[in-house]
Amino acid sequence: MAEDKQNNQEDSENIEITPGTEQFGKMVFRLNNPVNAENVSILNYNGAELEQIQDGVYAQPAFVSDDFNLFFVVTQLIGDDWIVAFSKATIENGNEITDLSDPLPTGEGLNLLGQVSADDANNLLSYFGTLADAKRGEWRLIE
Questions:
Q1: Full-prediction pTM beyond 0.70?
Q2: How large is the average pLDDT for residues 29-56?
Q3: Spatial separation of the C-alpha atoms in residues 125 and 71, rounded to whole Å
């Protein structure tokens, strides 16, 4: 067990953690570069575009249904690191976002979505895989 912790700290990118598990809920997706007006479009998902909702905070819908709404929130959450997190949203009158929860770790948001729609959670997981393959970001385990 101590060896697992040591390996995790030394080489977290080689550890495979299964989506849907408690451990995956502690994963965040860290971007390799800060987000700004010039590069924000590289993070577009499913035809939606990140919008700046306040200085240094971007959001866009990731999954919207009658009873569960999940938004991407991209901001500097851990030190200077830009993180793609999730937030549960309250939507009223069909399109008015009236509340966003505190940011959830990327893995936790995907786990929540997986309980509602496994297909959509898998699509989002593929999206993060594409970003990682393009060297736009990487998965990190938070302690």
A1: yes
A2: 92
A3: 14
